[in-house]
Amino acid sequence: MPGKFCVSLTVAKDNPDKATVAFVVANAAVASDKETVVFLSTEGVRLAVRGYAEDIAEEGFAKLSDLMTNFAGAGGKIYVCSPCFKRRKLDETALVPGAVVVGGAKLVEFMGESCPSVSY
Fold first, then answer.
1. Nearest-angstrom CA–CA distance, 28 and 114
2. CATH 3.40.1260.10 fits 4-119, yes or no
3. pLDDT averaged per 10 residues, the chain (length 120)
């Protein structure tokens, strides 16, 4: 089933359950041959920093860092909101694999017309 899919994620350690489920869904989408983007904004941008997600593990799910690694390894892309990332003074040289800091225009370009999405 070709096409696109977007998962928008605004949380990190402040809501590890939502953060984990977002990447479970993203992995399902990329495994279904969807061109998949996870868009990290507000507190979610912290997940883009290498090592940050290492201690996030919700019962019944794989570790969040493993879900993120698997997602990127399967070709998924992680778009990181540039203003949100800069506001938190995070290190752009320490991004996880698959992550790229982008402006809102890049997300709009990806979603274009009729791109299903979910938000967490």
1. 19
2. yes
3. 92 98 98 97 98 97 98 98 98 97 96 93
